[in-house]
Amino acid sequence: KAGVTQTPRYLIKTRGQQVTLSCSPISGHRSVSWYQQTPGQGLQFLFEYFSETQRNKGNFPGRFSGRQFSNSRSEMNVSTLELGDSALYLCASSFGFPTAYEQYFGPGTRLTVT
Amino acid sequence: AQTVTQSQPEMSVQEAETVTLSCTYDTSESDYYLFWYKQPPSRQMILVIRQEAYKQQNATENRFSVNFQKAAKSFSLKISDSQLGDAAMYFCAYTGLFQGAQKLVFGQGTRLTINP
Questions:
Q1: Cα distance between the two ends of chain B
Q2: Residue range A94-111: average pLDDT?
């Protein structure tokens, strides 16, 4: 079974631009979560989607948004990029049912904002 | 809010020896899951082991085992017969059972070095 895939793997953007990252979950998984990883703040939860609905959201500004499609693939968008948005963005998928909390992570997208 | 604390930023161990990584957490929930994830230099997060809070028996996965002390809110990871491939960042993570969503709260991580 294929793992979680994320595209692109690396991205360089300029301040003020916007960016869209994509995540394809493991087949059969309906929950997709996004995390931001930085040296200073560590791993922080951005949001989680289940069956095309956002179920939970972390403490990030409204510039960070996401969506999920009917095939469970998810995208996250960051508008008006700031230097501090440079990070590794990790996507994780799971079945999403109450008793299945194991999340499987993708390889991440390394975003650099200049 | 739930918090996870890993007090050891770095640890090192000789190959074939045993090492224990510490993790404490704070929560007011009675039911939850705890995990250890490994992140090697490739940056791919890999699930190592999980523990359900309602289970008294400590989880084990081959050379990896946990010491779960619910009253003390402690969740340590023991790696036996350490191998060079075990070198990585290790993250302890928590999620509540009734949050209705998959939201992992991570510790700051412990960098494990294996000395040959």
A1: 41
A2: 82
